């Protein structure tokens, strides 16, 4: 197969997975509470806990993405 086609298919698949995750994050689960609200509550608790132990998240964006992906995969 053409390398360009393979790369485009990979990009398309990644975009579809991102869209699924974003749809899940925006889903209301209880009285105007979304999965995103729950996710940020968990994230802030982890960040606070680490800070009290003098640990720092070096790449917060990557950590948020990986945490959100993990929670999403475990909940579906």
Tell me the β content: 5-15%
Major sheet: arrangement of strands: 1-2
Mean pLDDT: 92
Q: Number of helical runs?
A: 3
What helical percentage do the residues reach?
A: over 70%
Beginning-to-end CA distance, first to last residue: 33 Å
Radius of gyration: 16 Å
**Strand segment tally:** 2
Give the count of structural domains: 1
Instruction: Sketch the major β-sheet.
Output: 2 strands, antiparallel
**What would you call the quaternary organization?**
single chain
Overview of this structure, please?
By secondary structure, the protein is mainly alpha-helical. The chain has one domain. About 75% of the residues lie in helices and about 5% in strands. The protein has helices spanning about 5-25, 35-50, 60-75; strands at about 30, 35. A two-stranded antiparallel ribbon has the order 1-2. Strand 1 (about 30) and strand 2 (about 35) form a beta hairpin. The longest helix is centred in the first third of the chain and has 23 residues, at about 5-25. The radius of gyration is 16 Å and the shape is flat. The mean pLDDT is about 90.
List the helices and strands and how they pair.
Layout: H1 3-25, E1 28-30, E2 33-34, H2 35-52, H3 60-75
Short characterization:
The protein is mainly alpha-helical and 76 residues long. Helices cover 75% and strands 7% of the residues. It has three helices and two strands; from the N terminus they run H-E-E-H-H.
């Amino acid at each position: 197969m053409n390398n360009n086609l393979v790369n485009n298919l990979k990009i398309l698949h990644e975009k579809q997975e991102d869209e699924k995750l974003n749809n899940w994050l925006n889903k209301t689960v209880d009285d105007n509470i979304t999965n995103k609200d729950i996710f940020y509550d968990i994230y802030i608790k982890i960040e606070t806990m680490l800070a009290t132990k003098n640990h720092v998240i070096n790449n917060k964006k990557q950590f948020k993405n990986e945490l959100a992906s993990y929670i999403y995969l475990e909940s579906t």
